[in-house]
Design a protein that fits this description.
Blueprint lengths: L11 H18 L9 E2 L7 E5 L1 H11 L5 H16 L5 E7 L2 E6 L1 H15 L12 E5 L14 H17 L2 E6 L6 H13 L9 H18 L4 H12 L3 H25 L5 E2 L6 H13 L4 E2 L6 E4 H5 L8 E5 L7 H15 L3 E9 L3 H13 L8 E6 L2 E3 L3 E2 L10 H19 L5 H21 L7 E2 L2 H4 L7 H17 L20 H23 L3 H20 L9 H23 L8
Parallel strand pairs: 5-6, 5-11, 6-7, 11-12, 13-15
Antiparallel strand pairs: 1-2, 2-4, 3-4, 8-9, 9-10, 13-14
Helix pairs in contact: 2-3, 4-18, 4-20, 5-18, 6-7, 6-8, 10-12, 12-13, 14-15, 17-19, 17-20, 18-19, 18-20, 19-20
The chain binds one RNA strand of 76 nucleotides through strand 1, helix 2, helix 3, strand 9 and strand 10.
Length: 601
RNA sequence: GCCCCUGUAGCUCAAUGGACAGAGCACCUGCCUUCUAAGCAGUUGGCUGAGAGUUCGAAUCUCUCCAGGGGCGCCA
């Protein structure tokens, strides 16, 4: 649990006070010290804190060595405690229901507290106190000289959102990219280019062009396997750092990087630092030498590779980490070689990292466990601060894995274009009076949001199945629904002449009787900071996706049931402030998801 | 053979160890002179893969099965 977690509970003080009283109650009756776990009342439209007394009842019965009915005793206790508490300061009502104790907040003051806090803190509502702890998140490791497809999107979106959440939760975050800019795939690409396309340059759709060129190279080599020799020769030239090859590699690599930049820009994803695969090739080999010198790695060259028998070194009887190959028998580097050096480089560049996260496909779990354990064995104290954040892949319907070679890919460029195009059609239909620029702006927000949301609104460990129909469906539980709630809130405020917080009515206690929808909405607003901390602690954007949708739904209920502009004072002012607060928290949640909150739709 | 993940409504997914397991999609029926219908209301839909255990209480924790997916010495 991050430091200061308790502070993110908005009603901590009240809860403590009630806890004290219940403690006094127990002492008075000679009951065991209760261990109460407080939660919110789990019914829509009910607002307050709640605990069960089953545990206390069970404790008591056990301590006394009695055989009694816990359910009945808990019910009794709840009733007795409710009577003992009366109506504590700040609460409106206390009720005992079947072993549960529910304390309802005085909405007049608590509603004001929540709404005022949101409006005062604005874009910072929900932001955790700065922890002065730095973490690095490595994500979106795209291969240059290849296509970028929807399968590659999850690491990019998940990583970006985790960065946003961790930063908001209070961490100093370093966003790292790790492009695969060298390797056999690059050499094949260069070979094809030099032989058949010398001098050509990509005009537009750079990434697609790069991908097509790679596919062409693969096809040529499949059709004429004897050409492999040329590729090997070219790889040798690269290894010698032949100036012509290096120059061409640099130039063409940049084309890919330019293409990626364009996609990152459209997706609103940025990086603080780029580590390139090519940067860690030689340092990795040096680390392998070091491992051999330390007696951790075994050198079987030239008849075998350099390996680390991790289980043996740890003295494990059962296989767990198995054997990691850290260098090929021909002295060429593997991913493992490079990952050793990369991990070290990260901590050399940022010695104060408390965590070094790797947002990478779950299939590489064992690989990372091996690499991190090897580094630990080599005596690097920071090795235990490295952590793999696994996620499941994106497949096509029928559990078809996206693979460029199989032609089973949805190119990101196509998806973005289609999504925006489709969104534009819908805007034309729904809101024809907007200007062309506005329509395009909305279409981008909606199209990109629709792409991102499904990748974030499920467990990291669950496969996302991509299908066009679902991706382009803007109805229901999806980003546009949340964006639409934001737009509706915005619309009310606009009509009320509220352009900024200062235009709102003054802070006020909510003395009028709040509708269920209002209570539900305020309750959710108050939960947002907790969800931020939870998402950060568990590394799960899902929690933010859920609260964002819940907020949108609660606001939509409110919108349908509670008129704002046409209602009498002081209800009008109170609701106006609630609308402004709702808009703010929905916007904050969307911001964490990397989804634009539009003003109009 | 060893290890990891998943199994909840027809489909896609939620659910701080707690109160009647909830949404969306799809299907059906309604609702635009009232703050934007990308919306809302209603109807239908479940022995949470099976079994045991821990617990006052299990979709959630443990174990054993079953089913599906993934990983496991020179792929990335």
């Amino acid at each position: 649990m991050p430091k200061g977690f308790q502070e993110y509970r908005m009603f901590e003080a009240e809860q403590k006070q009630v806890n004290q009283r219940i403690l006094a109650f127990c002492r008075e009756r000679g009951l065991p010290e209760p261990r109460l776990s407080w939660g919110w009342i789990p019914f829509d439209g009910h607002w307050g804190i709640s605990t069960s007394l089953f545990q206390l009842a069970a404790q008591e019965i056990r301590a006394a060595g009695l055989k009694a009915n816990v359910q009945e005793r808990a019910t009794e206790l709840a009733e007795q405690i409710a009577a003992f508490l009366g109506t504590p300061e700040g609460f409106e009502r206390v009720e005992a229901v079947r072993g549960y104790l529910n304390l309802y907040f005085s909405t007049a003051t608590y509603a004001q507290r929540v709404i005022d806090a949101v409006l005062e803190q604005g874009i910072n509502f929900g932001r955790g106190e700065r922890l002065h702890e730095r973490v690095m998140v490595e994500f979106s490791q795209p291969n240059t000289h290849k296509a970028f497809h929807v399968g590659h999107l999850r690491s990019a979106i998940l990583g970006d959102t985790l960065c946003r959440i961790l930063e908001f939760a209070g961490y100093d975050v370093v966003r790292a990219n790790y492009p695969g800019d060298i390797g056999l795939h690059v050499i094949k690409w260069l070979w094809n280019y030099m032989k058949y396309h010398a001098g050509e340059r990509p005009e537009k759709d750079i990434t697609r062009w790069m991908g097509d060129m790679y596919a062409e190279a693969v096809r040529r080599l499949e059709e004429n396997p004897e050409l492999e020799a040329e590729v090997r020769a070219l790889y040798a030239r690269w290894d010698q750092r032949d100036p012509e090859v290096v120059r061409l590699w640099q130039e063409t690599r940049q084309w890919s990087l330019d293409g990626f930049d364009e996609m990152y820009r459209q997706l609103d994803i940025r990086f603080d630092v780029y580590y390139f695969n090519s940067m860690v090739e030689h340092p990795g080999k040096e680390m392998v030498d070091e491992l051999i010198a330390k007696g951790i790695a075994q050198d079987e060259r030239p008849n075998g590779p350099v390996i680390v028998k991790i289980d043996e070194l740890l003295g494990l009887k059962q296989e767990k980490y198995r054997v990691l190959v850290v260098l090929r028998s021909d002295n060429t580097a593997l991913y493992a070689t490079e990952d050793l050096a990369l991990a070290k480089k990260k901590f050399t560049d940022y010695p104060d990292l408390v965590r070094s996260y790797y947002v990478v496909d779950v299939r590489q779990s064992l690989h990372f466990q091996q690499v991190f354990k090897t580094l630990e064995l080599a005596g690097y104290e920071w090795a235990t601060r490295c952590q793999h954040v696994p996620y499941e892949i994106v497949t096509l319907p029928g559990n078809v894995v996206m693979a460029s070679r199989e032609g089973t890919v949805v190119l990101l460029e196509n998806l973005i274009r289609e999504a925006i195009q489709r969104a534009l059609q819908v805007v034309e239909e729904k809101n024809p009076e907007l200007s062309a620029d506005q329509k395009m702006e909305v279409a981008r927000a909606v199209g990109i949001g629709a792409i991102k949301y499904p990748m974030l609104a499920r467990e990291n460990a669950k496969i996302v199945t991509f299908d066009w129909q679902a991706a382009l469906d803007f109805n229901g539980q999806a980003a546009p629904y949340i964006q639409y709630a934001h737009v509706r809130a915005n619309s009310i405020l606009r009509k009320a002449g509220v352009a900024k917080v200062e235009d709102l009515p003054a802070p006020m206690p909510y003395r009028y009787s709040l509708a269920q929808a209002e209570i539900q909405l305020i309750d959710l607003l108050s939960r947002f900071p907790r969800e931020v901390q939870r998402a950060a602690a568990e590394l799960k954007p899902l929690h933010i996706a859920n609260i964002a949708y819940d907020l949108a739904r609660a606001f939509t209920d409110f919108y349908n049931e509670c008129p704002v502009l046409s209602v009498e004072e002081p209800v009008r002012s109170g609701r106006l402030r609630l609308v402004a607060a709702s808009r703010q928290v929905i916007a904050n949640a969307l911001q964490l998801l990397g989804i634009t909150a539009p003003e109009v739709m």
